[in-house]
Design a protein that fits this description.
The protein has 414 residues and is an alpha+beta fold. The chain has helices spanning 11-27, 52-55, 159-163, 167-173, 213-225, 244-248, 264-276, 287-299, 378-383, 390-397, 401-413, and strands at 46-47, 75-80, 97-98, 107-118, 124-135, 147-152, 190-193, 198-201, 309-312, 318-321, 329-331, 349-351. Mean pLDDT is 92; it is low at 1-12.
Length: 414
């Protein structure tokens, strides 16, 4: 039986109410300051979206291209040079929107370079690489050494389950020096976390740059919506010293109350909602999908996309989750390199993406896979794998059409 709370409601009811409130905050449309709705003001001054849900509809992945053909709001542009430093004027992320009276930093324009790959059975596949640019820069030209890296907002489904994986299990999975000689050298992205007060493994973000849901939420509030949070109290968010008007714009901080624009309670409630999002439900597997599952293992895909983990629920109960990821950094080769390091992750290193729900795109629309949404099909995503995974991609290229389809059927069922 659940313990009673001081209000007389049981803990599950209170937790359920917190999740409902957290969802409302996740969907809240923030407004610029000053505003009569002080609990929801503080947007920007520079920002990419007005709410969390704008980039993560229903907690899922954002759209790469909108119906009008322009990049969607869920597509961000990271700005870093070869040392990992941000642009001296624009910072580490381009903000495409601004409050009234200030210019936005610019518009993302996207084009694609296409090359073709011929598989062993003669099938020809077009692979596209996004080429991002900045139109209408609001604060002068970007520094010539700044590299542009498009990033598409990923699905948040199952984040709570991934956070429950024990640190010891992640460390045991790592093999940074390829001691077993299998060609796979996944490594933990160790972070020095102020929130946790110690070195912890990164597990969220395309390069595992956030240790947990809380850090990922705070990063998104500051960089994507321009909302200050505990630990990042400056109401001007990511406005740099080269943008004095932006720094001087009104903001929603409450110095008299010691509160940033999103208080610790707001952040915690959003965290609770994100942690509650269930993993995508797998689809029933037919005989072809089962055959594809065997191929997935035989080719070596499971070396990085680890199928299952055991995690412990809050009451101590063990359960199995099947995210198909090791949450480690891997060298994915020059084809996926974005030209700049991030934290301790090299330009060509990426965290293994979870595969649960990978084939569940919008009805009638192409998928948008990999960190920048370049892959429109599961096969395209596989063929972009290089570096440590090059041999596995070659293994798929050698399959005949029937076996290749079986592999795809398996992935679509996850």
């Amino acid at each position: 039986m659940m313990a009673a709370s001081p209000t007389g409601a049981d803990e599950r009811t209170v937790e359920g109410l917190d999740i409902v409130v957290g969802q409302a905050l996740f969907e809240r449309i923030w407004v610029s300051s000053p505003s009569s709705t002080r609990a929801a003001d503080g947007l920007g001054p520079l920002f990419n979206a007005r709410s969390c849900v704008a980039c993560h509809p229903r907690g899922g992945q954002g759209r790469l291209i909108e119906d009008d053909g322009d990049p969607g709001v869920a597509l961000l542009l990271r700005l870093r040079d070869a040392t990992g430093a941000g642009d001296p004027v624009y910072g580490v992320q381009l903000q495409t929107l601004a409050v009234p009276g200030l210019p936005a930093e610019g518009r993302i324009v996207l084009d694609f370079d296409v090359h073709r790959v011929t598989l062993a059975d003669g099938m020809n596949v077009a692979l596209r690489r996004p080429r991002a640019g900045v139109a209408d820069p609001g604060y002068g030209e970007l520094h010539p050494r700044t590299r542009l890296s498009p990033r598409l907002a990923p699905s948040l489904a199952g984040a709570g389950a991934l956070e429950a994986i024990e640190v010891e299990d992640l460390v045991a999975m790592a093999d940074p020096d390829d001691a077993d000689g299998d060609g796979i050298s996944g490594r933990v992205h160790w972070l020095t976390s102020e929130a946790y007060g110690r070195r912890v493994p990164g597990r969220f973000g395309f390069k595992a740059t956030a240790a947990g849901i809380d850090e990922q939420t705070r990063i998104a509030f500051v960089h994507d919506i321009g909302i200050s949070v505990p630990g990042r109290e400056a109401g001007f968010a990511e406005c740099t010293e080269a943008q004095p008007a932006c720094r001087a714009a009104p903001n929603g901080d409450s110095p008299e109350a010691g509160d940033p624009e999103a208080s610790a309670q707001v952040v915690d409630l959003v965290n609770g909602f994100v942690a509650s999002l269930p993993p995508p439900a797998p689809r029933p597997m037919d005989a072809d999908a089962r055959a594809g599952e065997a191929l997935f293992t035989d080719i070596g895909c499971a070396s990085c996309h680890r199928p299952a983990w055991e995690v412990r629920d809050g009451d101590g109960t063990l359960r199995e989750i099947r995210p198909y990821t090791d949450l480690l950094l891997h060298d994915m080769g020059e084809g996926l390199s974005d030209g700049a390091p991030e934290g301790d992750a090299a330009a060509g290193e990426w965290r293994t993406a979870p595969l649960w729900g990978v084939g569940a795109g919008e009805e009638g629309k192409d998928l948008a896979l990999l960190h920048d949404g370049r892959a429109r099909t599961l096969l395209e995503a596989i063929l972009w794998h290089g570096g440590e995974a090059a041999g596995h991609a070659e293994g798929v290229m050698k399959l005949n059409a029937r076996r290749r389809e079986q592999l795809i059927r398996f992935l679509e069922a996850l």
